[in-house]
Each structure stands twice: as structure tokens, then as C-alpha cells.
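User: I've been trying to design a sequence by hand for this structure and keep getting stuck. Would you show me what you'd pick, starting by listing the structure so we're on the same page?

Assistant: Good idea, let's start from the same input. This is the structure you sent:
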């Protein structure tokens, strides 16, 4: 079986465009930064086997981004409420947080947008694991 880099690039780009559409932006760099921050926040809430199961659904390029700087001995990170969740996502995008996330509401909007894009792109089982890894207050934000 040949390894086709162009197909992998196309799959990753399609998902990035889906995220950008949900974020209501044409700026793919911004969409990529936000997607990466939310993916890393999600990853850090999951146990190792759950993170691997979730990542198996992502295009190969996004799998690499998902596991970039992963520290499996430090997960799952405890997040007690939506304020901590917002700050955790902000910290995952520390490089560009002042431009991408001016208000806490923008972070929660971004989280919901990324989750919506993932719902269009991967199977329900891994997303249900993600949702269950979040406390009730954060899960309710997905319903808004």
C-alpha cells in the first residue's frame, strides 16, 4: 500500500476548513491555532487509552498535532468548572491568545465550534468519551 501524502494533506485541510466554517472565519491560521488549542485541552482531559481511541479518528496530520507535546503521565488534568476550562484552553493557545481569544465567551464559542466540526468528521463513540470526560457544567455549554 502506497503512502499518499497528498491524500493526507487533503483530509487534514478538509477538517481545518470545517473548523474554520464553524468558527465563522476565513483565517485558516487562526482556525488552526484554535483547533490545536482545543484538541490539546480535550486530549489532556482524557486517559491515555481514551486519547488514543479519539485520535484514531483524526486525519494523520491532526493526529500528530494532537499528540505534540503530550505528557501521558500528567493526564487526565482536573478541571472543576467552566472557568477553569476556559483558562485551560486559553493557556493551550498562549502564543496567540491575545489575538484569538479576547473574551472568555470567544473561547467557549471556539470550543463549541471545534466540537461541532468534530461531530461532522468523526464517529460518535470517541466524541461521547470526550463529552463524558468533561464535568456537567462544561457539557451543558455544548448544548447552548
Amino acid at each position: 500500500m502506497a503512502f499518499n501524502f497528498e491524500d493526507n494533506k487533503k483530509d487534514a485541510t478538509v477538517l481545518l476548513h470545517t473548523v474554520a466554517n464553524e468558527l465563522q472565519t476565513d483565517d485558516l491560521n487562526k482556525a488552526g491555532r484554535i483547533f490545536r488549542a482545543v484538541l490539546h485541552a480535550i486530549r489532556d482531559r482524557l486517559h491515555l487509552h481514551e486519547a488514543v481511541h479519539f485520535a484514531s479518528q483524526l486525519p494523520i496530520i491532526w493526529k500528530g498535532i494532537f499528540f505534540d507535546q503530550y505528557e501521558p503521565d500528567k493526564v487526565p488534568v482536573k478541571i472543576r468548572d467552566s472557568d477553569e476550562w476556559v483558562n485551560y484552553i486559553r493557556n493551550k493557545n498562549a502564543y496567540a491568545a491575545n489575538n484569538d481569544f479576547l473574551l472568555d465567551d470567544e473561547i467557549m464559542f471556539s470550543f463549541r465550534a471545534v466540537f461541532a466540526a468534530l461531530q461532522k468528521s468523526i464517529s460518535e463513540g470517541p466524541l461521547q468519551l470526550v463529552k463524558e470526560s468533561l464535568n456537567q457544567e462544561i457539557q451543558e455549554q455544548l448544548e447552548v
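That's my pick for every position. To get oriented when you compare it with your attempt: The domain at 21-143 is CATH 1.10.490.110 (Globin-like). The chain has a mean pLDDT of 93.
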